Amino acid sequence: MKTAGRIHPVYAEMERTVFDRMSALAREHGAINLGQGFPDGPPPPALIEAASRALYERSSQYPPGAGLMELREAICGYYARRQGLELAPEQVTVTSGATEALAAAVFAFVKPGDEVILFQPAYDAYAPLVRRAGGIPVSVPLLPPDFRYPAEALEAALQKRSTLLARSGLPDPAPAKPRVLMLNDPLNPAGTVASHEELAMIAKACVEHDLIAICDEVWEDVRFDGVPHRSLLRFPGMAERTVKIGSAGKIFGLTGWKIGWMIAAGPLATALARAHQFLTFATAVPLQWAVAEGLALPDAVLDGQRGQWAAARERLKAGLAGAGYAVLPNAATWFLTVDLAASGIGLKDRVFSERAVIEAGVASVPVSALYQGEEVPEHLVRFCFTKPMDVLDEAAARLARFRAEIAG
Ligand code: PMP
Ligand code: GLN
User: Fold this and answer.
1) pTM surpassing 0.90?
2) Which of 75, 96, 100, 123, when mutated, tests ligand 1's pocket best, judged by the most ligand atoms within 8 Å of its CB?
3) Which of 141, 147, 165, 196 has fewest C-beta within 10 Å?
């Protein structure tokens, strides 16, 4: 069979994700994997115990498509306790990780020809999902070193098409309009957290332009230095137009469990549940029971885990700084970003990452892989720090030797 022209254009040219590629290279070269984001430490024992108990004692047949009621209630309880949100289980759909929630939300709300505001850098699934839904990604770049949200650039992106049309004087047969905005706060890969003012500005733009906000908050509980999390959902006018997405993978450091969820008000929640029912219908039921128990654990359990991650962050930051790398500020996520240019390294990020995994035995993620469009910085590399201390020390030592070889 001739396949040319038969494969959807989004997939025809697509590469393997940078995370999968760097993990494969790390395996191939026996490298320390600080690329793809996952913790090496053992998962919270209470969750392992709860999952195995569920395997023995609970049904292994299909749960309700929207998720176990016990888990949906636990998600609401968790957000009431930790974020002061008043949510009802009917607003929650449990998904196979946040990735499925993102897909369901994009498929539910992006129609062919709709523009979708995407801040860059962005999790690599966003743009392909938007394109597969027939939408048009409109990039608003966030620039290093602080990755702040630019009000003017956002407004320009929202106004661009109408301004261009007005100047041309031509009628538009089918004007594309921004309909959806995707926000990831805290932000992967930068590890930054939006301020109250930035979120208020984004919320105002969403209300004024009647946008639905798909708000990817998977890193909401991986924050350091007392930096608070504020859900976009809480800003005026946003409860009715926000999809809040979360993931047990990040909250508990259980990335392979792939239990996530999406939350929205009435009519949006119904559309999300419909999109989900024909993506996966339902997700692994023993793990749903375990996550329900996990979300009800005392806050001290999560705080203890966060304390370990914070210590690992300090260790890698000190190791990299000691090795001559310029580390950007980080307030959240499992990642530190290094500025290669400021570290005296002239290599582009992709070249650095490819060489470092082979020559130094340390995998990283080139940040340019998470940008699309123009204004792509090519001097930033991301390292995951949720690893044992001796592994971080060895990685820093290897990167010190590597820098000595390549720095100008
Ligand atoms: N969104 C962001 C911003 C992420 O960083 C990740 C995973 N690292 C996901 C979504 C996907 O989460 P999950 O593994 O639950 O699908
Ligand atoms: N988002 C994760 C990271 O930033 C990876 C997720 C994946 O591999 N699909 O490392």
Assistant:
1) yes
2) 123
3) 196
